[in-house]
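Handout, page 2. Input:
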Amino acid sequence: FAVLRDPALKGPEHRAERQAFVRDALDATIDFTEVSRRALGAAWAARTPAERQEFVGVFGDFLKRSYLGRIDLYNDEKLIYNGESVEGDLATVSTTLEWQDGDRMALGFKMKRDTGERWKVYDVSMDAVSLVDSYRAQFSSVLRRDSFDALVTRVKNLGTGPK
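Output:
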């Protein structure tokens, strides 16, 4: 939010710079391997290390594109910290996103401590709907009907079509 609020980075002429800052923040805060593992669910175990690595890259790129495509919609919303719970190496951070018109949405961030003692996000819930659970349901459906390669191709193509 600090980057998005910075007056020096406002305007279409600073879009690439804003996106670079946000991309770096996403890379530093999200555990894309854990997100991918949980989104694939049981199918993760059947994948080779090379397939897992490919999926993490493809799914991570999709998630970043999705988020970066929305940052221009930011309009001074507030993120309100509500609390946290920690159990060992897992934590949940509860927040509320508040728009200028007073509308609110509950956001929960599930986090995991990595080996370097840094906390990273592996799931986000919006009004109690888990992003990872939603993708797992979609990916499972594709894998029941088609191949892992077809799933990878679909994820690669998500969000890359005409705008």
